[in-house]
Write a structure and sequence with these properties.
Number of helices: 24
Keywords: Membrane, Transmembrane, Transmembrane helix
Shape: elongated
Distance between the termini: 36 Å
Radius of gyration: 29 Å
Number of strands: 14
InterPro entries: AB_hydrolase_fold
Protein name: Membrane protein
């Protein structure tokens, strides 16, 4: 541990979690001002009455108080705020498909079958993402080309009667009106895929452009931009334009018929549309070949064919194809038969890809099993590394459901006499069956949960002995904490099971609807209630999402609530799907690293990165980058504090290749005991990070975890801090409700769960330890005085030691 000198100061750099926050809340002050940043990524400090940056509260250590500077990095503006960011919620199915790529199991080194399986899985993910984009375009075509242009605006239709017949008969009017929304949608998607966050400093941007792949094995080493994204984006746009033309020309199975030169032109345009779609599918399938970027390997021709100039030519030809389609459709027919057929063909292809993906993922997960077989069960990947398959299925079914959910209200608004494609009746059946199964599953899960909870409380506190140790002698707090501990543990242990149940319910409904459609079986009368319920579910899905987008655009608070979805999905760079919001981690992490390096130029400064919830992942990746780049004498001046973190129970289990357990052990060893994790048993979203297999024996909290040198093993019994926290290894278990109140400190009553970790006095002690100013096993400090006398009597059935 470095010896603190008279000029020593500590910079506490905080990063918030999901939903965003205010600058004042982040730095725990009544006022805050910006001290750096570009307005999107903001670095703030507490301010005085003249709005000048003010120092933070001093940090009490064993020897003397140390100057502390509190800073906060605000990144919530990257995921919420304004109409543009609010509409990103409509791309949620695309984001889920992109996240599924990062959930793939790791590929063991020097294992050719695992390498080939990983290559095939990534390629299938990109094909599925392309089909998901095509499905959205096809569903918009159902609304704009079929419902609106072909049926509603045909001459003599009793729909939108304010439009005169002469206008309806005007050449190319209906075709133009039907294709315009599709082209606008494709243009918006292309523009979204071009949006990227500008890194504040030029030297950081140049370093990121090098696209280095660190081999350190630290967390987030592979979170980097994909050089294939521009090519992938162009292929999605080309396929979307070709699908729009194909639908207008009759669909993938049968083209429109005409005589003479018109028939020849339609045939040529129809064939060109199919060729463009086929080339797009082939391109996204082959783009994931990592050997393609090497000039001496066989894939170099693909990189050359998809360079900037050929891509522009390809896009221009696709635009010409759409204009040609418009010219060939002087008057639309009464129905557009290609819309229904295209939606069904794309849906069947997506189902085939998901099934194939799930089958290939089984041996890939089995080959990767050796990387986690030595871990205890509670640390192993969810579903044995197979979790990407249900996530991908949910993405596809949500994408199809949202399109149908929009078409149904539009048909109702324009007139009940309009006819939706026949396939939509089976989509409503799908969601009706899924909705009914969801209600039954909810009832079953609620009943089972209630029974288990009743049984657990009937047996007493055996399963939550940690709570009784934390709240020894405080029966009122123990009673409140026990209930919260039970619910929090239940949510953490079974949250991924709920996702599996949702996916299973949707898949059962999809299988039933698909079998009836493929066999062309007329829907039995008993399915009518399910179809009616499906219409309600789809309408509710579409209206709820659109309402959330509207409120997010009008009300900032709603925008932050909508950001829960975006904050989690937008952490991951564009990999499988290019038409997703930009990855904020590619901006936040390098700017955090740069800020820390700026502070470390002062030899008396020590920097502690502090992250709450999702922010804990950001600061962990930033700390890993600092360990890679800093010299040894500077590494000793950085520390890490995580609070309410998912770095043990969620991220290594959902993303075993990106945040594996071994990478966290290496990070803990690199920080040499300067990684402190604040956790509460009442927190349903955060949990322990540094320890596992905890148990209480003879009034002592024991467990296994990371040692200071990065090794793993049994730890010494937990030490009780001066404010009641139990320190086991690197984990600081906080009593919740807090002890106290303490004179001179901010107080928070009741169960805090996932919020306001900085209000606990143990926060300052953890920062001091992370800064290397305090030893964990130092002689116990005298407890802080209470503002009121704590309760010590024990008359509760739960007891207390």
């Amino acid at each position: 541990m470095l010896i603190a000198g008279p000029d020593t100061r500590v910079v506490e750099l905080r990063v918030h979690g999901v939903q965003g926050t205010t600058p004042q809340t982040l730095v725990d002050a009544v006022a805050a001002v910006d001290v750096a940043g570009d307005g999107v990524g903001r670095i703030v400090r507490p301010a005085d009455r003249l709005r000048r940056p003010a120092p933070g509260p001093v940090l009490q250590t064993e020897g003397r108080p140390v100057t502390r500077v509190v800073e906060g990095y605000l990144w919530g503006g990257m995921t919420s705020g304004g109409v543009a960011k609010a509409t990103w919620a409509l791309l949620f199915p695309f984001s889920i498909a992109n996240v599924a790529h990062w959930m793939l199991p790791p590929v063991p080194e020097r294992n050719l079958p695992a390498h080939l399986l990983g290559l095939g899985l990534r390629s299938l993910l990109r094909v599925f993402a392309l089909l998901l984009t095509a499905l959205l375009v096809a569903q918009v075509s159902v609304v704009s080309l079929d419902l609106l242009a072909a049926q509603c605006l045909r001459p003599g239709a009793e729909c939108l009667t304010s439009i005169p017949t002469d206008v309806r008969l005007f050449p190319w009017f209906r075709t133009f009106l039907g294709l315009l929304p599709i082209v606008v949608l494709i243009s918006v998607m292309r523009r979204i895929s071009h949006v990227d966050w500008r890194i504040e400093r030029k030297e950081i941007a140049e370093a990121e452009d090098e696209e280095r792949q660190p081999a350190s094995g630290l967390p987030g080493a592979h979170v980097a931009t994909d050089p294939d994204t521009p090519a992938l984006r162009s292929l999605h746009v080309v396929a979307s334009l070709a699908v729009a033309s194909l639908i207008a020309l009759g669909g993938p199975l049968k083209q429109l018929t005409a005589t003479g030169s018109m028939g020849v032109a339609i045939t040529v345009a129809w064939i060109v549309s199919l060729v463009f779609i086929g080339l797009s599918v082939l391109g996204v399938f082959l783009l994931d070949d990592p050997t393609g970027g090497a000039p001496h390997r066989g894939g170099r021709w693909l990189r050359a064919a998809l360079s900037r100039r050929p891509r522009r030519v390809f896009l221009a030809l696709s635009a010409v194809l759409v204009l040609t389609t418009l010219g060939l459709q002087e008057q639309l027919p009464a129905r557009v038969p290609g819309a229904d057929v295209t939606v069904q063909v794309i849906a069947l292809l997506m189902a085939f890809v998901v099934v194939l993906f799930g089958l290939l993922l089984v041996p890939a997960a089995l080959l990767a099993r050796k990387t986690w077989t030595s871990l205890p069960r509670e640390l192993r990947p969810w579903a044995g590394g197979w979790f990407a398959t249900p996530v991908l299925a949910i993405a596809g079914l949500l994408g199809g459901g949202f399109g149908a959910g929009v078409a149904l209200p539009v048909r109702k608004a324009l007139g009940e006499q309009l006819k939706l494609p026949e396939g939509y009746a089976y989509i409503t059946l799908l969601w009706g069956v899924a909705g009914a199964l969801a209600l039954l599953s909810t009832f079953a899960v609620a009943s089972f949960t209630g029974a288990v909870r009743w049984r657990a409380f009937r047996k007493g506190k055996e399963w939550a002995r940690e709570a009784s140790v934390l709240h020894s002698g405080r029966m009122r707090d123990l009673r409140a904490a026990t209930r919260a501990w039970w619910w929090a543990r239940w949510e953490r242990n079974h949250g991924h099971h709920m996702i599996m149940i949702i996916a299973s319910v949707l898949v059962v409904g999809a299988v039933l609807a698909t079998l009836l459609r493929v066999q062309n079986v007329s829907r039995p009368s008993w399915t009518e209630p399910f179809s009616a319920f499906g219409v309600f579910v789809l309408g509710l899905l579409a209206v709820s999402l659109l309402r959330a987008v509207y409120l997010a655009a009008r009300q900032p608070e709603s925008g932050r609530r909508l950001g829960i979805i975006a904050d989690i999905a937008q952490f991951w760079p564009r990999e499988a799907h290019p038409i997703v919001p930009p990855c904020y981690a590619l901006k936040v992490v390098p700017e955090l690293v740069s800020r820390v390096q700026d502070h470390l130029r002062d030899p008396g400064t020590r920097v502690v990165l502090c992250g709450h919830s999702q922010g804990s992942l950001l600061v962990a990746v930033a700390a890993a980058r600092l360990l890679e780049e800093l010299p040894a004498h500077d590494r000793e001046r950085i520390g890490l504090v995580t609070a309410g973190s998912q770095l043990q129970w969620a991220y290594p289990r959902a993303f075993p290749a990106v945040v594996p357990h071994a990478s966290l052990a290496r990070l803990a060893g690199g920080l040499d005991g300067r990684w402190r994790a604040l956790c509460r048993g009442t927190d349903p979203l955060g949990g322990a990070v540094m320890t596992w297999r905890r148990q209480v024996f003879d009034g002592m909290l024991l467990g296994v975890g990371y040692r200071e040198d990065g090794s793993e093993g049994a730890l010494a019994p937990a030490l009780r801090g001066p404010t009641g926290a139990l320190v086991l290894g690197g984990d600081h278990w906080l009593p919740d409700p807090q002890r106290g109140p303490f004179p001179g400190r901010r107080w928070r009553s009741g169960v805090s769960a996932h919020s306001d970790y900085t209000s606990d006095p143990e926060w300052d002690r953890a920062v001091a330890i992370a800064a290397g100013l305090l030893d964990v096993d130092a002689p116990e400090s005298p407890p802080l005085p209470f503002a009121r006398k704590p309760e010590t009597r024990s008359r509760d059935a739960l007891g207390g030691s």
